[in-house]
Each structure stands twice: as structure tokens, then as C-alpha cells.
Hints:
Radius of gyration: 23 Å
Number of helices: 19
Helix content: 55-70%
Structural class: mainly alpha
Mean pLDDT: 81
Distance between the termini: 52 Å
CATH architecture of the domain at 296-405: Alpha Horseshoe
Largest sheet: none
Order of helices and strands: HHHHHHHHHHHHHHHHHHH
Strand content: under 5%
Shape: globular
CATH superfamily of the domain at 296-405: Tetratricopeptide repeat domain
Amino acid sequence: MAARQSYGKLLAWLSWQWRNVGAAEDALSEAFASALKHWPRDGVPVSPEAWLLTAARRNLLMAARRQRLEDDPRVLMLLPDLTAEPVDMQTIPDERLRLLFVCAHPAIDSSVHTALMLQLVLGIDAARIANAFLLSPAALSKRLTRAKAKIRDAGIPFSEPEPGELGTRIGAVLEALYGAYTVNDSTILDVEADDLADEALFLAQLMSEQIEGDAEVYGLYALLLYCESRRRARFDEAGTFVPLDEQAHSLWRNDFIHKAEFNLSRAAKLKQVGPYQIEAAIQAAHMQGVLDQNTPWREIAMLYEQLLFLGPTVGAKIGHAIAVARATENPAQGMELLDAIQTSGVAGHQPWWAARASLLAMMGRKKEAETAYTRAIALTRNEAVQTWLKRKREKLSLSSSNNQN
Length: 405
């Protein structure tokens, strides 16, 4: 729990103070390793974050001494703190948002911006990030290592970007926050994942308050608010996943929905259409469909077309295929769109297989649908989603058996 709640904040603060992401990351990793050794024996300290911060700073100081940097002003700055009273974490400024903008520096390869932020600032492990990006963990690890070396070797400044530089970095930061939220939804939904969602939502709110005049900042915040408003309705009493169109809307948080509507309206007034605004509008349409018991599939399909025009991502293509199938009541048309997705990693992409299974079931191709569900089940570690997919598969299997009898 301490790792999930503390990692990003501690790493960001240490990186900012020490001006060295790699050194801060190593020191914090050693601190967590030390905690695993000492806490089971001595008990969890009153302030786990303060303990970890003190241990990490001690590790930084020891590393600096080993490099004969005793006179380095950074060392002198940290030295008094090691003998000070336990740190009150409330006095430590939250530097995560600033570190996100450092990771989005144009000198770093743009293809690794999001992955770097997800790992460094939000503490997501490389394997989960690789799965979300349809990459092998080894390939992603190499990219991340190069990016961290770039920050160190190129002397990328740990300072907030000038106003004129914000525009080139905001997109990468928004993508990282959305990535954190979708990684949460597509792998393990547990207490740690809920903490991750809270962090992403908090940072999105922070951006909406501190960055004015950017419609996509408001759009992302609205999108995450719509998603978070349904958190309590995503699982039934047995802990099984419940899809949006089957959720009990009485469990939705109206305060989040109202905030989402406000921010989406705020974005629309700026007349800067972007993908996060469209995705938020898609969420709003789905939710209104649940309330009206009549999902507006044609409107949703049109929104997906706009989304694909702005950025033909795999997720948008999958959503568009499902929406077209439902809007036209022609699952074969949706299947054609799904099969047209040409991405090397799609064969290992769980949402693609789940969508395929759903369309095959709609087409009456039950055996093929069962096979697709089996593949989708194997590609998720989320037990709640696994249970839901298994129920869908078993329902098909039972239906096939009854037809044969």
C-alpha cells in the first residue's frame, strides 16, 4: 500500500531536489527494499512515507559520498535533514505534475514520453505498460533506459517549461494520465489500481486548475470524471465486472457527473475539438442511454468517426466497430471493421478479442465466439473481468447445447 500511495510523490520530490531521476529512482528502490526487510520485523512506522523519504535521501547521500562529491552543494543541502526530526509529509510539495512536464521534454523521444511518465511518476511497472502499448517488456525497458540516460546526459533542466513551451508538452502529459487510468481498467482492478486511478484523477484536476485555455485539459478531466462516477457500479456484490449498459445508475456519483458536464461545457466554449473531449462525449452518450434505456448508437458511431479522424488508435477502431454493428443492427459490418485493424500486436490485445467474441455471438457463430472469449479470458489478469467473460462464454455454450438437444 505504501508503495502505491507514496512512490510517485516521493520519486518526483527526490528527483526535483537532486536533479537526477536515475539516482532518485535507485535510492527509492533501495529504500523500499529496506522497508521490506525491516518493517515485518520492527513493525510499520507511524509515517511510512517519512521513513521511506529519509531512507532514500540517506541512500542518495551515501552514493554521492562514494563518488567523492562531499563538497557538492546538493549533498550539503541534504546533510542536515538526515539528523532532523521525522519529516511531516504534508510539508513536502507535490512535484509530480512538474516532473511529468520534465518527462515530456522535446529532447526525449516522443514515442517514450507516456511510458516514461507512467513508470517514473505514477509507478507502473514496465510489464503493464508494455501490455498497454502492445510492446514486449524487453523492448520497452530499453526505451525507458535510453530516455532516463537522455535526461541525465543531456542535462535536461528540472524547471517548469516557459509558457510558450507548454503547448508542446501538454499533449504528452494528458496521454500519460489517460494511460494510467486505462492501464488501471485493463489489467488488475484492486486496491492498488484504485489508488492509481485516484492519482490520475487528482493530477488531471490539478492541470484543469493550473492550465487555462486548453480545451483538451478540460476534456480529459471530464472523461476521467465520467469514468470515476461509475466506480461503485462496476462490480456486483460477488465482485464480478458489470458493463456500463447493465449498471445500476443509482450507484453512480452525481457530483462527479455534474463536474464532468461542467468541464466538457467549458471545453466546448473554446472551440478546440480534441480526442479527449470526444471520448468524454461518448461516455456521456452511453450513460444517458442507460438512463433513457435507449443507447444512441448512431450518434456514438458518429462520435467515433470524429475520433478516428483525429487519431486512428486501436481503441477507437474497436469502439467504432462495435458502435457501427449496434447502430446498423448488422454485426457483420462491425466484424469487417474489426478485421481491418492492422496492428502487429492486436493478436495479443484483450479488448480486440472481447469485441470479436461479442460480434461473433451477435452473428450466431457461437463456437467461434466461445474460442474468442477463451482468448480474451487468457489475455487479462483481472479476475472480475475474467469471471464476466467466462459467464458470457458459458451462456453461449449452454445455448449451443440446448439447440443440439
